[in-house]
Design goal:
By secondary structure, the chain is an alpha+beta fold. It has a single domain (about 5-110), classed as Alpha-Beta Plaits, CATH 3.30.70.100. Helices cover about 40% and strands about 30% of the residues. It contains 4 helices and 4 strands. It has helices at about 15-35, 70, 75-85, 90-100, and strands at about 5-10, 40-45, 60-65, 100-110. A 4-stranded antiparallel beta sheet has the order 2-3-1-4. α1 crosses α3. The longest helix is centred in the first third of the chain and has 22 residues, at about 15-35.
Length: about 120
């Protein structure tokens, strides 16, 4: 079996604030999970086109995992949040996130083929 990814599709209420949240709050958490080996990668993207009120999802993220087991492993966010954001309160994370976006859909994909640059 290959790598797996959860494709998360978001309906965003406040695009600039949500992009800032992903950059300043969630990206450091994803970096820590990758460093720990719990994830193999993370991507955040915003839709450019098509646009308009009929656009279903305006932001996407992908949580990548090296194995099937890793994709289903429990990763409590609170310990990682507290490690990468010392002095901040985890309880505020959920409340802030709910104001910024709704997770409209989440799909699990298997990565069948991939090409990547060797280091």
């Amino acid at each position: 079996m290959g790598h797996f990814l959860y494709l998360n599709m978001m309906k965003v209420h406040d695009v600039p604030a949500y992009i800032e949240f992903e950059d300043k709050t969630w990206r450091p958490m994803a970096e820590e999970w990758v460093k720990q080996g719990a994830m193999s990668g993370w991507i955040f993207a915003t839709k450019v086109l098509p646009g308009g009120t009929d656009t279903t999802y305006s932001a996407y993220s992908a949580d990548m995992f090296p194995t099937w087991e890793a994709a289903f492993a429990v990763r409590p966010p609170q310990p990682v949040f507290e490690k990468v954001h010392p002095g901040k309160k985890y309880d505020q994370l959920s409340a802030e996130l709910a104001k910024l976006r709704n997770l409209g859909r989440r799909e699990l994909w298997e990565i069948v083929e991939r090409v990547e640059k060797k280091k």
